[in-house]
Amino acid sequence: MKAASVRLGGITIYNFKNVLEGSLSFINTRKTYKASIVGLYGQNGSGKTALIDALELLKYVLCGRTIPEKFAEYINVDSESATLVYQFIVTTSEESFIVSYQFSIQSAQDVSEQNINSIQSTEHRKRVRIYNELLKCPILGEKKIRIGKLIDTDTSQVFLPNPKRLLLIGNDRKIDTDLQVAKKLTSVQSRSFVFSSELLGAIRNVVSKSINSEKERFFYATIIESLVNFGNHELFIINTSNTGIISLNAQPLSFKFSGGKVGAIGSMMLPLNEPAVIPEKAKEVVTKVIQNMNVVLKQLVPDLTIHIKDLGTQVLENGEIGSRIQLMSRKDSKEIPLSYESEGIKKIISILQLLIVVYNQASITVAIDELDSGVFEYLLGELLSIISERGKGQLIFTSHNLRPLETLDRGFIAFTTTNPQNRYVRMINVKDNNNLRDFYFRDIMLGEQDEQLYEQTNNADIALSFREAGEYCGS
């Protein structure tokens, strides 16, 4: 069963971090482009990172992985649960259609490591409980195709509707019982049930025994497999921890590539203040990633390339032979350790291979928080302009640097508001000859949009607060 291509069409967030409600489409309705770009702008603490966190949560769910406990803290302080709704555009060789997936999360007490209540234990770890999963897609039948429920876990049964359950997992009582147990287990383990290995295994088993004429079953199974493939192989999240790792003198590398006998997907962290000892296979992957990256890097930063310096072999903990390597940079025939390059160059290196894939492949989505961190604003604007006009994939980013407002089509730009119940908007009443950057500054001052985009500060009050704070410093 061949997976279809998947792209994010939009997201709606309820009670997640400081977003009581926010809905954002990732589709440029102004003009048709092969690439899908969304740049989100707004003042600090207005919901930009919440969007990236919501996409990171989606990746954990689609991969069937345990949701980290940090997400229990992301539920809005005034709410008991958060709900997220994701819209996907699924494209097969024959057609494109919309698929919707939503779920809620709650914070639960994790007592899995304790078998009695103890007065000595005052701290309890939290875990995330995911529930009320709902997967909707076009429903095939004799009548006109409509969007309807495919899997709804808000039931005491394995899932509803009954006809879809029988179609996807059959009517074997033992399988039904096993999945009931799995449903409870995934709840305790902070995993999605819809995208769990247990449910996927049951569906795959039924599909493998099906005949080609059972079009409806194959159609639904293809949708589920496509979302699983998207989460595991085509959705990449780069959050601010990436920048934090760089400041600690380590080099993160995120990548997806295939070529010859070597193909890899994922991320890797290499120390810069000392040689790294890595397995031979990992060295081969890093070498291929760097070769691919250097083709573009020397154009972004004239004549700059990076490479691996081989410092010999070393026996690994498992007894295998590993390689001692150090990342080096070369410019103007001079070679220095990469650790001495600027953080901006290291930031570009950490994401460049993924940007190459976004440019060349339609079936990839990369979400980057604070894309502009450490990157020269003119270069940032040119990079995004090239990807938006000639690229094929999907790039979602947040930024404080306003240069892209002058280089990107305004249909690619969205803004946060000061209203937690309507966090994400696009500018209205912008004319084609308006400079969006100037227009944004003007709205900050005059507030001409339906929603306020910036909470005004008072310079006199700020100056006074600095003076008052100085009194505590002995000034």
From TrEMBL:
InterPro entries assigned: ATPase_AAA_core, P-loop_NTPase
Source superkingdom: Bacteria
Transmembrane residue ranges: none
Keyword annotations of the record: ATP-binding, Nucleotide-binding
UniProt keyword annotation of ATP-binding present: yes
Domain ATPase AAA-type core as annotated: residue spans: 37-402
Record keyword Secreted present: no
GO terms assigned for molecular function: ATP binding
Protein name: ATP-binding protein
Organism: Sphaerochaeta associata
